[in-house]
Amino acid sequence: MAHIVIMGAGIGGMPAAYELRELLPKEHRITVVNSTDYFQFVPSNPWVAVGWRDREAVTLPIAPYLERKKIGFIAKAVTQIDATASKLTLAGGDVLAYDYLVIATGPKLSFSEVEGAGPVKSGGGGFTHSICHIDHAQAFFAEYQEFLKNPGPVVIGAMPGASCFGPAYEFAFILDTDLRRRKLRNKVPITYVTSEPYIGHLGLGGVGDSKSMLESELRGRDMKWITNAKTTKVEQGKMFVTQLDDQGNLLKDHEVPFKMSMMLPAFKGVDAVAAVPNLCNPRGFVLIDEFQRSKAYRNIFSAGVCVAIPPVEITPVPTGTPKTGYMIESMMTAICHNIADELVGKPATAKGTWNAVCLADMGDTGAAFVALPQIPPRNVNWFKKGKWVHLAKIAYEKYFMRKLKKGTSEPIYEKYVMGILGINRLDK
Ligand SMILES: Cc1cc2nc3c(=O)[nH]c(=O)nc-3n(C[C@H](O)[C@H](O)[C@H](O)COP(=O)(O)OP(=O)(O)OC[C@H]3O[C@@H](n4cnc5c(N)ncnc54)[C@H](O)[C@@H]3O)c2cc1C
């Protein structure tokens, strides 16, 4: 009998637990360890921040759903990984031994890299908001309700070193839609400030026509933008931004005023993972091989935002490569097959496709992109806009939450529909 521990019950960890349970004979034990007792559907946080969703709609208690599938659950943070002895120390001091460890801990939100940025409780200076966590999105909404009584300029964007740009665009367009509906948009100048070298880069070197489409969308919604933006400091109501040219030379220094701001931070690996000798790169992301296995420890696999992926290209202000939901699930499927194979004495051969598929809501419309594979040149490379994406994004939320409540990882119709689109989880 083997004991498989999954660390992190997010977009990657939860489906992995279900998929492993489906693949493995009953004698093998599966335990999920997560720092909170609830799951949050992170992609819905932009809606929470403007009050279009409440917390109950996008979170669920983990224990009852996992227990129903005979999967163990511990609602505690892992504070230390002893990768040589295959043991975890949990908050409070309990020790948990594993035969295989699946690390799916998502990002550490590295607000402290820019003075003054990010929520205080998350190690930031308190002058900008975030939508990376449900608590942050709720904090934005609380202040937003006061802001609406006396509105002013807003700054939205992504900090140097950020890798997740889609949600910043998404949030700018959602906020614009919300303010227009309230007939207050005329009182809110919005500036989009991003470390991307151009609008629509998305950490992916662009996808299809993303540059001209997103520029056109920002123009159409009266938003100004600053690209190659190295945000250096935030004070109450003021953001200090050094704009670089394409060669990385100083182009202009800006002081951008704001009444409210949401800036996505750079990501790092979480402390307990980053501290393991030889496991990670200098930013704490897990170094893995093509089978999602740690390069240093044969019984550790990893997937999701916590793995190391090189940037698609070097940019004047550092940017990273995004890891999107479907790509994360494809990594997890590969891990589940590899662990199942090893347990019956076969070599691990499954590889995730890492295809980037993303739906970004724009409030009343939306944009979808498919990048197959993620690194250009690509076999499929399209970016399309339409109201159907807004509806598809709502459906994605409902579908994912339902999938977790039902306890399945990849229901048969998902496999069928994605298969028709040529999008598969495993690289055959
Ligand atoms: C605002 C936002 C919107 C996004 N929208 C989309 C979208 O629309 N579509 C899309 O495809 N992708 C989207 N993404 C990208 C990506 O899908 C999400 O970031 C996704 O949540 C990443 O999944 P994950 O499993 O790697 O990490 P997470 O979902 O963040 O899960 C990590 C889990 O690990 C737990 N954890 C962390 N440290 C420890 C520890 N020490 N011990 C135990 N547990 C720990 C956390 O509590 C958490 O539950 C979005 C990202 C953001 C930030």
Give a brief outline of the structure.
With 428 residues, the protein is α/β, with parallel strands linked by helices.
Word description of this protein:
This protein folds into 2 domains: 190 residues, FAD/NAD(P)-binding domain, CATH 3.50.50; 154 residues, FAD/NAD(P)-binding domain (3-Layer(bba) Sandwich). The chain contains 11 helices and 22 strands. It has a 5-stranded parallel sheet. A 4-stranded parallel sheet has the order 13-12-11-17. A 3-stranded antiparallel sheet has the order 6-7-8. Helix 1 runs parallel beside helix 9. The model has no long low-confidence stretch (mean pLDDT 94).
Produce the secondary structure layout.
Elements: E1 3-7, H1 13-23, E2 29-33, E3 38-40, H2 45-49, H3 55-58, E4 59-61, H4 62-68, E5 72-74, E6 78-82, E7 87-90, E8 95-97, E9 100-103, E10 108-109, H5 134-147, E11 154-158, H6 166-181, E12 190-194, H7 210-220, E13 223-226, E14 229-235, E15 238-244, E16 250-257, E17 260-264, E18 267-268, H8 271-274, E19 300-302, H9 325-343, E20 356-361, E21 366-372, E22 380-385, H10 387-406, H11 412-420
Parallel strand pairs: 1-2, 1-9, 2-5, 9-19, 11-12, 11-17, 12-13
Antiparallel strand pairs: 3-4, 6-7, 7-8, 10-18, 14-15, 15-16, 20-21, 21-22
Helix pairs in contact: 1-9
The structure holds flavin-adenine dinucleotide.
